[in-house]
Amino acid sequence: MTQPISLLVCALGGEGGGVLSEWLMDTARRAGYPAQSTSIPGVAQRTGATTYYIEVLPTPLSELNGKQPVFSLNPVPGALDALVSTELLETARQISLGMVSADRTRVFSSSSRSLTTLERMPLGDGRLDVQPLLDLVKQFSHESQVWDFSAMAKEQGTMVSAVMLGVIAASGLFPMARAHYEATIGTGGSSAASLRGFAAAFERVRSTQAVQAMLADDDTDKPLPLDEEPALTVFPAAVKELAALGFARLCDYQHRNYAMRYVQRLQQVLDAENAIDPLHINGYSASREAARWLALWMAFDDIVRVADLKSRASRSQRVALEVKQQDGELLRVYEHFKPGVPELAALLPHWLATPLLRFDKARVMRGREPLSLPLKIGSHSVSGMLALRLLAGLKWLRPLGSRFAVEQHDIQQWLDAVCTGLREDHGLGLQLALCGRLIKGYGSTNERAKRNLQHLLQHLAPASVNPSPQWRADAVRQAREAALTDEAGLALDGKLHALGVAKRTPLEQPLRFVRSAGRSKAD
User: Fold this and answer.
1) Domain for residue 410, yes or no?
2) pLDDT tens for residues 210-243?
3) Beta-carbon neighbour count of residue 366 at 10 Å?
4) Cβ neighbours of 211 (radius 10 Å)
5) Which three-class secondary structure state does DSSP give residue 501?
6) Nearest-CA neighbor of 93 among 145, 37, 140, 142?
7) How many Cα atoms occupy the beta-carbon half-sphere of 433 within 13 Å?
8) What parts of the chain have a pLDDT lower than 70?
């Protein structure tokens, strides 16, 4: 072969793309092959990857009789032999630029995502759908492997560049042997972690042969696990996959009896959908959405849940991986809490919580700071972990608390609206089920979200608003999308005005005057 083998590497800032490029060059030279590498930096953080272009001539220097090959400084669209990328959208970006060809280019991409600025801006879920990106990779590549490089790097306690080197080595793209790559990484110190990541990726690629197996092995493409819980047998397969996850989540959150309440509530929605759509033309779409958002709402965040999540062994392991803790190193983790009266009152019965909340609200309305208890708990210590586990063990108090009762009432109000809408029109019921995604966050964000939902249920869902269920379904959809646009609710108020329905009632907000720094009372 007289033509160089070409490889384009795409990496985001801090992922070690430059190190990977140097490793490849050193490996080629160590094995005696001529090679060249060039790089083009990205524009800024997450607005474009830094690309590294490598060419290796598969003929050893010893056989060139003193001749020197001529390499290209930049990749030629459609003439790449391989593309390796650490981020799925960056892979799709290079495909859109025409860099790969379906009859030649092998694509090795991580399925992980680093969200763009435009994806982070919406209040709702602004993430791009992953499936079209996976389809694009499959369509425009001769061979492809897509799986999570970043997750493997974290598991091995190394950088993603080491995993990418293992992918390239195992692919057989270049003529260098595995021993050449490992010798380049070296031994001792941080090299040991890099070698672990290299070896894990090498074995992963070698054990994955067919394109179908590669894509099926991708974390984003795995079928959802199904629980063998007998209570879930009443649901069709299209609903059961989400219902199983919801059931497991609520068993972990509270107990099995609470999860059975989830099953009973979801059954109400399924019965209403079966009545309006007996042939299942809509594929149980309303029940699927209800299964998704009902489980998330019923597992609402509170101080007990936070303590439980922060004291789990899996979190300690994840933190150790994130900070790259080495053997023999000490790691101290401090958890910061600032519970206020609402968080404490949530676990108290209504007759005790009401006067406490009234007292705290009166202080705030007088311009005072809300009462709170700042806490700094070291979860690395025995006393700190014991305190967190004791707090997490208070979940038996949750059903007796005032917030639990309020949440259950609001959930049932939403589900009743969904069922009523389904009995009238499937489209209306589906749009009301999708309104469950409005509930998110905690504290004031969660309160605003529930307030928005209740306003939609009262002023857009009833037949008295408009006799046409299709009009109401479209109005609910528009209002829901507007509510997810901005946290302040300005877009929602504007949309409600355009639809000719009542705006939300403004909430009372206290005015607090703060003295400027450096000014005395006399000033």
Assistant:
1) no
2) 333 333 433 433 433 444 677 888 899 889 888 9
3) 9
4) 16
5) coil
6) 140
7) 28
8) 1, 41-48, 187-190, 208-228, 517-523
Give the count of domains, the chain: 2
CB-CB neighbours of 154 under 10 Å: 19
User: Alpha-carbon distance 99 to 326, whole Å?
Assistant: 40
| Coil/strand/helix, residue 144 | strand
Question: Which stretch of DSSP H or E encloses residue 514?
Answer: none
Q: Which of 69, 68, 35 minimizes the C-alpha distance to 52?
A: 35
Structure tokens at 295: 């489980």
Q: 13 with 108, same domain?
A: yes
Q: What is the pLDDT of residue 174?
A: 92
Domain boundary residue, one of 380, 402, 424: 402
* Domain termination site, one of 221, 252, 279: 221
Domain encompassing residue 385: 304-402
Terminus-to-terminus CA distance in the chain, angstroms?
Answer: 85
User: In this structure, are 203 and 309 located in the same domain?
Assistant: no
Q: Where are the beta strands (DSSP E) in 129-263?
A: 143-147
pLDDT of residue 221: 38
Is 460 a member of any domain? no
46 found inside a domain? yes
In a domain, 463, yes or no: no
Contact 161, 16 (CB under 8 A): yes
Instruction: Identify the pLDDT of residue 288.
Output: 92
Cβ within 8 Å of residue 250, ≥6 positions away: 258, 259, 262, 295, 298, 299
